[in-house]
Amino acid sequence: MQTSFTEKQLKDKDNQSTEKIFKKCVHCGMCNATCPTYQLLGDELDGPRGRIYLIQDMLENEKKPTPKVVKHIDRCLSCYSCMTTCPAGVNYMHVIDHGRKYIEKNFERPFFDRVIRNFLSVVLPNTLYFRIASFFVKMGKPFQFLMPSKIKDMMNLMPTNFPKKTLKQKEVYSAKGKKRVARVALLTGCVQKEISPQINESTIRILNRHGVEVVVPKKIRCCGSLSHHLGKEDDAHQDFKNNINIWYEEHLKGNLDAILSNTSGCGTTMKDYSFIFKDNSEMKKKAKVISDLTKDVSEYLHQSLKLNFKSKDKKYKIAYHSACSMQHGQKVHSQPMELLSRTKNEIMEIPQGHICCGSAGTYNILQSEIAKDLLKNKVNNIESLKPDFISTGNIGCITQISNGTKTPILHTIELLDWYTGGPKPKILQKN
Question: Distance between CA atoms of 312 and 340, rounded to whole angstroms?
């Protein structure tokens, strides 16, 4: 792709990076073949190629974003599917992130949209605010029919009750056995640790049982991905820097073998810290160390540990949903399936498994109609397999898919924990 950035514009580091990405694009359109929104809507501007043109035009001509441009950029799921398909290796996500940052600075959204986006960026990463919001949602349920559609959709996705945590909250969970084989840090997730604490508990149990010490620093904040994908770069960078500094200090103090994420969207952003801070002299070195240490929990278990699987009498049909941020963002796809196959159950890939379920962070709230269509397609493909239950590696996908099917869905780590000596997941007690 030809570019026409001026010399002055290329003094900006973001423009420098984006121009290099633009030049890789050969306009082939193969990205559209796997883009969920293009496949659903059929509009060139709702595919990666079209969005690249829109962003290039905005940046090079320093145009004020129009509502039409913003609409098409907002419709991007950030699912990374196009990047898996692209033969030229175009890092579309870095382009879309730059476009969203530009829009956030140069476009005034309608009042109601601003309120919703600000609400999500403040409430979801904060445990206290999240619980307070949940309380008000519970109180407001009888009046839900009076609410605008976006508020209704948000209320439907918000929990009204929180499960009890069974593990005592502490910073260090010691390895079991005579010898510690590794030391890792665990990101427990903002929403996940409140609505599904059993995911983190399963993660800690399986690691401890196999000789791994788990560190959960108290001062770790949100990974920053939520604000980042909303274009709120200042807020995101505060979280990025806080976490990088804390993990880096922990690494220097006790040599971390890995920093684990069991929320694939978070892990994808953490692996991108090195790119985000590549031009920051203060953070560059630290960010690269943290990105290099970051692994999805299934990736780490597959690569670094020999799990002790225990046989079960009953065999199940398990549909594996590969989260977009995991299979496309982190290129982790076969590892969790190989681990699951060692349970001796039937592990089935979902038809059109590369297509997003519609969760995509806050997408199912901000673009609820498109998200509902994607969910319907995903559920139809899942149910065509007639599975006993569904396994996936991301809390967003679990929340989204559970709203469309009665088939039980749980995190992959819960199954691996059960099959290596942990308790049977509560959601499967009747199975």
Answer: 13
